[in-house]
Amino acid sequence: MRPLVILLSIAVMGSGLFNNFIPASAQTWTPTSAPTNNWTCIASSADGNKLVASGIRLTIPIYTSPDGGETWTVTSAPSNTWNSVAASADGNKLVAVQYDGGGLYGIYTSTNAGANWVTNNAPQAGWTSVASSADGNKLVAVNNSPETIYTSTNGGMVWIQATNVPAAIWRSVASSADGNKLVAVNNYSSGPGTIYTSTNGGTVWTRATNAPGANWTGVASSADGTELIAVVNGGSVYTSMDSGTTWETNNLPLNDSWYACASSADGKKLVAVSQKQGIYSSVDSGAHWTSNNAPHLNWEAVASSADGTRLMATAFGGGIWTAQLTPAPQMNIAPANGNLALSWIIPSTNFVLQQSLDLTGTNWMDVTNTPVFNLSNLQDQVTLALTNGSGFYRLATQ
Predict the structure, then answer these.
(1) Cβ neighbours, 10 Å, residue 369
(2) Which bin fits 305, alpha (ψ -120 to 50), beta or left (φ > 0)?
(3) What pTM value is reported for the model?
(4) Domains annotated on the chain, with CATH
(5) Could you report the per-residue pLDDT of 120-129, keeping only the tens digit for each?
(6) In this predicted structure, what is the pLDDT of residue 79?
(7) Contact assessment for residue 169 and residue 129, using Cβ atoms and an 8 Å cutoff
(8) Are 46 and 349 in contact (CB under 8 A)?
């Protein structure tokens, strides 16, 4: 066990607690071994290890990586024009949608991390974007021909068309971890683009009247669906802290070719890619942004691990790039039916929970309780029995 350098410590002494958080460092992007295809889409498991990516042109298949992008494998999915991919939290359930100019194509899914793919009974359409719940059962997909939204509650076996959304050039869609809160952005056919949200898995959609009409191209959501980010091609980057009711612009370069964005599970760590300005990131829900050490390529897509410390981006004709920060998970503490619940967003690096009776001592012991992964918030949780004594807990890298 290495000495704990990046950690959050929680002391439990009766009802008192304190915490100490050390923020992550700046980002440096490096190319992976993926070929320089015309990449247009990428998705990640919650821990950032399992990746899926593809692109446009009929010669591009779907690729997967089991090790955060170090190695890539061509899957059995047919080579086609793949416009968007999504993954469940464990990276085993995947979904990909096809689109090729004016052509009409379908939706493919995999339940074994891309080893095998099957077509779905979704209608043939010009699919542009797809999103998945954490368990991979609830899916939402948008298209620009016939310009509507479809949802599925059984992993793509049956699809239902939304009835109260306008005909629009739907460009991007995102989902909360439970699949109930959805957000979709479009380029409206007869005017400026709009943003629509749903709080019941796509049964009812509501227009975000506070969002400006714009050429919306990308959207992402926190795990609980509360914090959102959306980007505009030829505009700026916007965030919402109330599930899309109100939107605010951010202090990023205006009138830029913002194409895609991604969010950590808590919505605090954001990343946006541009075809002119490169890659920008934020660690405070978009209040402040930092330009990253990434080349100015034709960035098309970006994905994030749940903790926001492992990022992946695809460039059209420029390969697949990754950035790895040092995780500093924030541990939460709460009562749970007379017990003590400790939880933290699933990290991109392995951590173990440790306990000590003396904060200044060196006698830290591993807590042997196996963490339970909560799909609703993408957090690992350990429940411990409460005692009248004092105790200290920390997360240590393995």
Answers:
(1) 12
(2) beta
(3) 0.90
(4) 10-22+328-397 (2.60.40), 30-324 (2.130.10.10)
(5) 888 888 899 9
(6) 84
(7) no
(8) no
